[in-house]
From TrEMBL:
Protein name: Methyltransferase domain-containing protein
Pfam families reported in the protein's UniProt record: Methyltransf_25
The organism of origin for this protein: Planosporangium mesophilum
Superkingdom of the source species: Bacteria
InterPro entries linked to this entry: Methyltransf_25, Pre_MeTrfase_YjhP, SAM-dependent_MTases_sf
Domain Methyltransferase per the UniProt entry, residue ranges: 41-134
GO molecular function, one term: methyltransferase activity
Lineage: Bacteria, Bacillati, Actinomycetota, Actinomycetes, Micromonosporales
Length: 248
C-alpha cells in the first residue's frame, strides 16, 4: 500500500502538497486560534508540514496518517528537524480506516477528500475523531470561474463540471451538512504556482537524472503538456481553500 511513484517524483521537493505557501499555512494556524496542548489528527498528512510547524509555533500535539511511505519518512524527518518529534507522530496507513485512540480538538483532511468519497463522507470520517465542540479543517478545490466547456473541465483534472462546486456552492454544502463555516484561508495564483510550477522543475531534474527509468516516457510526455495546461485552465479556473467548521 503506497502512493504511486510518479506522485513522489513530481512533489519530491514539496513540504506542502497543496496550493498553500508557508505563509498561508501560518495564517491558517493563527486564524483558528490554536493553543498549547490542543490535540490534532491530520488524515492524509503528506510530509507533515502542518502538524510540525503548528507544533513548533503553537505547541499543539498530534498524529498524521498518510499512505505514502516517502511522505511519512519526510514528515518524521521534518519533526526531528524542527525539534517537535516528542509532540507529533506520523503513521503509515489508509486514513479512511484510521480511528484515533482518543477524540481530538482539531481533525483535518487537507486536500484528500477522496478518502471519504467526497466532502460529506470526509466530514463524517473526521467527526468520529472529534471532541464535541471541536474544529474540523477540510481543504478542497472549487471553481473560481464557471468552466465554459469540457476541455476546461478536463484541463483541471476532473471528468465532469459537477466534480467541483463553486465557492458559494461549497459554502452552502457545509451549511446543508449541519456545519458552521467559522474561518477560511484561500489559495491564490501565486500559491498555486508554488505547488504546480515547482513540480515541473522536480520532474525535469528527475528526467535528467533517470533517462532510462520505466516512468521516463510518461513523465516526459507530462512535462510537454503540463505548463500550458496549467496556464490555460487550472490557474484561471480552479480555486482551493481550507475551511474551518464547527458542528452547528
Ligand atoms: C494533495 S496531498 C495533501 C497532503 C497534505 N495534507 C498537505 O497538505 O501537504 C494528498 C495526500 O493524500 C495521501 N493519501 C492519498 N490517499 C490516501 C489514503 N487512502 N490514506 C492516507 N493518505 C492518503 C497522499 O499520499 C498525499 O500525501
Amino acid at each position: 500500500m503506497d502512493l504511486p511513484r510518479s506522485f513522489t517524483i513530481r512533489e519530491s521537493n514539496h513540504r506542502i502538497h497543496n496550493p498553500f505557501t508557508d505563509s498561508k499555512l501560518a495564517t491558517l494556524g493563527r486564524a483558528i486560534r490554536l493553543r498549547p496542548g490542543m490535540t490534532m489528527l491530520d488524515l492524509a498528512s503528506g510530509s507533515g508540514e502542518m502538524l510540525c510547524t503548528w507544533a513548533r509555533e503553537h505547541g499543539v500535539t498530534g498524529t498524521g496518517v498518510d499512505i505514502s511511505t516517502a511522505f511519512v519518512d519526510a514528515a518524521r524527518a521534518r519533526a526531528v528537524e524542527l525539534g517537535v518529534d516528542d509532540r507529533v507522530t506520523f503513521v503509515h496507513g489508509d486514513a479512511a480506516a484510521y480511528v484515533a485512540a482518543t477524540p481530538v480538538d482539531v481533525a483535518a483532511c487537507i486536500g484528500a477528500t477522496w478518502i471519504g468519497s467526497g466532502v460529506a463522507g470526509t466530514l463524517d470520517l473526521l467527526e468520529r475523531d472529534l471532541h464535541p465542540g471541536g474544529l474540523l479543517l477540510v481543504g478542497e478545490p472549487f471553481w473560481r470561474t464557471d468552466p465554459p466547456d469540457q476541455a476546461t473541465v478536463e484541463g483541471c483534472h476532473v471528468s465532469a463540471k459537477e466534480d467541483h462546486h463553486d465557492l458559494p456552492g461549497l459554502v452552502a454544502l457545509f451549511g446543508k451538512l449541519g456545519w458552521d463555516l467559522v474561518e477560511m484561508v484561500l489559495a491564490d495564483e501565486d500559491s498555486w504556482d508554488r505547488y504546480v510550477a515547482a513540480q515541473w522543475l522536480n520532474v525535469r531534474t528527475w528526467l535528467d537524472a533517470n533517462p532510462d527509468d520505466d516512468l521516463a516516457g510518461e513523465l516526459r510526455a507530462e512535462l510537454d503538456d503540463a505548463p500550458l495546461r496549467y496556464a490555460r485552465y487550472q490557474r484561471p479556473y480552479l480555486g482551493w481553500g481550507v475551511f474551518a467548521l464547527m458542528r452547528r
